Amino acid sequence: MDDNGPLRVVLVDDEPLAIERLETLCGRIADVEVVGKADHGEAALEVIGKTAPDLVLLDLTMPGIDGIEVARKLSEQTTPPAVIFVTAHESFAVEAFDLDAVDYVLKPVAAERLERAIGRAIAKRGEPAGTSDTKWLQELWVPHRSELVRVSVSDVRRIDAERDYVRLFVGEKTYLLLQTIAGLEEKLDPEEYIRIHRSTILRKDNIAGLRHDGLGVWSVELEDGETLRIGRTYLPKVKAMAGR
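-> structure tokens emitted (244 positions)
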């Protein structure tokens, strides 16, 4: 692949109108060349193998092999193409980050949003794949208005469970993400985050101290002055963190 030539792109979607829309939008972006198209996962892998693109715009839900599985297979290559997921479904955002996708664009695709995503792919061009030195989650895509936005995990101060969702507290904002708290906990660095209750995970540097409320009940005091009850199951680990 020539890092100085046009960005060579393969489009993958089982909806002909979606392919047509992506091809039209790509045609409006400078230095982008569509070199192949596929309407299902198996065909996508074949086209990608023949064309060796720089970037794949990849739908998630398709007959046979879905987009996540296609991305997994591509990630096993020595020099895999970059992947941008283009989908109507926000529920795969965490899995997409596990696969080191460049971006995650929601349908209906806005021209400016796609151009921004492709700009990210161009900026990352030539970087070795999988350069992160940690297995822990570093970023998340979270729904915001009509798109998904990137949030650095290090900016998430608190995570609350809300049924099948989690609420992320980021500065003055909160975001809902379709992900169980247990599933997200597995992806967080335990040196940085600790679960204090079945419904709450905290960033450790957001904890100002512990308070004994009597009768074996303990709470954490947060940097902003709020107090949260520690679940009995999680109390030993929280105490160990505090050296007690």
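Residues 111-123 form the longest helix (13 residues).
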